[in-house]
Specification:
- By secondary structure, the protein is of the alpha/beta class.
- About 35% of the residues lie in helices and about 20% in strands.
- The chain is built from 15 helices and 22 strands.
- A hairpin with a 7-residue loop joins strand 9 and strand 10.
- It binds xanthosine-5'-monophosphate (XMP).
- The site of xanthosine-5'-monophosphate has 13 residues, from loops.
- Xanthosine-5'-monophosphate binds next to loops.
- Homodimer.
- Pathway: Purine metabolism; GMP biosynthesis; GMP from XMP (L-Gln route): step 1/1.
């Protein structure tokens, strides 16, 4: 998978979820990177013609039986290598240094002492600065020819380098935010020690992908389903840039969207890209299919099934008009890695996205975001002129408001939830909190009625739940401590403006144990 003319930095994944984050940080230093499993033979690594190799951290102790090892041949290839945490120890071991089980462990924030003016990696950084450690074993003697450039209380060799051979490593985790100089250290390895030119920029990504799409599609025609989300919008915009009106976008309105979302696609996205768009109004059909259904998993299945049927019909209609051979999908790099592109990474997300490839319609896939991380996708979207409301859109589940109504989904309930949700979003945006929260589902407890007093009489209205969460990746999350005055405004406005709601409650559960969505 040669995704770019940029030679990749290959991040060897020793497990434990660090590799993807390292790959992202490498790209932040404007160097293209990919994750590969630690089982990849050296010959295969060489075939990829890497600009450098980064050995990631991992959960094992180098002493454990079956612990992944580094093939010493890797160090005879004149390829720059950077070892991190476990990768640092494995590198030290393979090159003849000493790794020991000293009994001193370091977890979390640790003071790093810079030695020998820091060498190339830590040059000009403060003589003492905090880093994030997580290790039981440590390197007690660096391999021959290496300079030790940092130590910590529990790690006599906390960093080493051999600039002539273009090798370096650190015991700590430079990729995490708790190592405030970590990005600089990684950057120095890539630019100063490995000598890689920073060329992976947003405009280079766009040029590169546009050229690839043109090459793949030739003078063919393509279809792209738009969900209203960032990924499909950016994928479509890239393909539109490449092949113009030989792309047709399809947007299915399943009636479970939030206020204003259809207009955002039909008006704003079309205005920004000039894309050809077909909207399918399937609101009735989804309501019919969901009638009487209260079980969340069943709702998800029905919505997924109906969506595929409607989308397939739209594809058939288009195919009847012209020869569409290509289908555009907004698959991202983490999906590729997590679904086996990198065997070392634990399979954490079993994602339930609406959509899918119909079996009887032979399409070739165009996946212009296959090598990109989410933050890169957003930057590409901005570069292509998409509005901020689309590019910075928070995640919204495919089954939409259907899984935020606890109980049966009806038109009336959708209208209630849409109003409450719009108010919450508007107030959060006005308060400037969009960047702090990952998303804030508003959930309608449609089967619950609580007593209220409004005006002169008692009411039996529904409660809505606010579920503001902060997260990096939706796998874990914490509830966002929203300012009381913002909560107050949201609550007052919802209970005043949405007659059927007489109570607003706040969900203060982290994930785990609670999921982000209620259903
Ligand atoms: P949970 O509720 O599992 O959600 O903590 C994690 C993230 O996934 C989104 N989500 C979904 N997205 N289809 C989707 O496309 C779904 O069925 C679905 N369920 C949850 C959720 O909004 C959050 O961002």
């Amino acid at each position: 998978m040669a995704e770019s003319s940029n030679r990749p930095v290959l991040v060897v994944d020793f497990g434990a979820q660090y590799a993807q984050l390292i790959a992202r940080r490498v790209r932040e230093a404007q160097v293209y990177s990919e994750v590969v499993p630690h089982t990849t033979p050296v010959a295969e690594l060489v075939e990829r013609d890497p600009a450098a190799i980064v050995l990631s951290g991992g959960p094992s102790s180098v002493y454990e039986p079956g612990a992944p090892q580094v093939d010493p041949k890797l160090f005879d290839l004149d390829i720059p290598v950077f070892g991190i945490c476990y990768g640092f120890q494995a590198m030290a071991g393979a090159l003849g240094g000493t790794v020991e089980h000293t009994g001193t462990r370091e977890y979390g924030r640790t003071e790093l002492g810079v030695q020998h003016s820091g060498g190339l990696l830590h040059e000009e950084l403060p003589a003492n600065h905090p880093v994030w450690m997580s290790h039981g074993d440590c390197v007690t003697k660096a391999p021959e020819g290496f300079t030790v450039t940092a130590t910590s209380e529990g790690a006599p060799v906390a960093a080493f380098e051999h600039p002539e051979r273009r090798f370096a490593g650190v015991q700590y985790h430079p990729e995490v935010g708790h190592s405030p100089h970590g990005q600089e250290v990684l950057r120095r390895f890539l630019h100063e020690i490995a000598g890689i030119r920073p060329q992976w920029t947003t405009s280079s990504i766009v040029d590169d992908q546009v050229a690839r799409i043109r090459e793949q599609v030739g003078d063919g025609k393509a279809i792209c389903g738009l969900s209203g989300g960032v990924d499909s919008a950016v994928a479509a915009a890239l393909v539109q840039r490449a092949i113009g009106d030989r792309l047709t976008c399809v947007f299915v309105d399943h009636g479970l969207l939030r206020a204003g979302e259809r207009a955002q696609v039909e008006r704003d996205f079309v205005a920004a890209t000039g894309v050809k768009l077909v909207t399918v109004d399937a609101r009735e059909r989804f309501l019919d299919a969901l009638r009487g259904v209260t079980d969340p998993e069943q709702k998800r299945k029905i919505i997924g099934r109906e969506f595929i049927r409607v989308f397939e019909q739209a594809e058939r209609d288009l195919k009847a008009e012209g020869d569409y051979q290509f289908l555009v999908q907004g698959t991202l790099y983490p999906d590729v890695v997590e679904s086996g592109g990198g065997a070392g990474a634990a399979n954490i997300k079993s994602h339930h996205n609406v959509g899918g490839l119909p079996e009887d319609l032979q399409f070739k896939l165009v996946e212009p975001l296959r090598s990109l991380f989410k933050d890169e996708v957003r930057r590409v979207g901005t570069e292509l002129g998409l509005p901020e409301t689309i590019v910075q859109r928070q995640p919204f589940p495919g089954p939409g408001l259907g899984i935020r109504i606890i109980g049966e989904v009806t038109q009336e309930r959708l209208d209630i939830l849409r109003k409450a949700d719009a108010i919450a979003r508007e107030e959060l945006t006005t308060a400037g909190l969009d960047r702090q929260i990952w998303q804030c589902p508003v959930v309608l407890l449609a089967d619950v009625r609580s007593v209220g007093v409004q005006g002169d009489g008692r009411t039996y209205g529904h409660p809505v739940v606010l579920r503001p969460v902060s997260s990096e990746d939706a796998m874990t999350a914490d509830w966002t401590r929203l300012p009381y005055d913002v909560l107050e405004r949201i609550s007052t406005r919802i209970t005043n403006e949405v007659a059927e709601v007489n109570r607003v409650v706040l969900d203060v559960t982290s994930k785990p144990p609670g999921t982000i969505e209620w259903e």
